[in-house]
Amino acid sequence: VQLQASWGGSVRTGGSLRLSCTASGLTQENYAIGWLRQAPGKEPEGIACISNMDGATYYDGSVRGRFAISADKPKKTVYLQMNALKPEDTAVYYCAVDHSLHKIVVLTPEYWGQGTLVTVSS
What we know:
Layout: E1 2-5, E2 9-12, E3 17-24, E4 32-38, E5 45-51, E6 57-59, E7 67-72, E8 77-82, E9 91-98, H1 101-105, E10 111-112, E11 116-121
């Protein structure tokens, strides 16, 4: 399985960005796909993920209400719409896939993509 994420970018506080990630080589239908991030000097955190089977979603409290995850099943692509961005959202964002949504949340997904940098300036 390979995960190809879109380019991140730089925005000012309050701005918006959308990330996308496409999974190739994924043959199973029972999987979850989502996003982890690691800010400078901090531990990684799982911020949002979605189940392909039932559409169940998870959001970390730090992004709930500001970020929205969605998926295009036929394209095996997940999107992360990030609104009301804050400087503390500055991080390298990683796309991840696992058969379990929980494993993405606890940072042990089977597959990771290359990170993409998101920078939010004040």
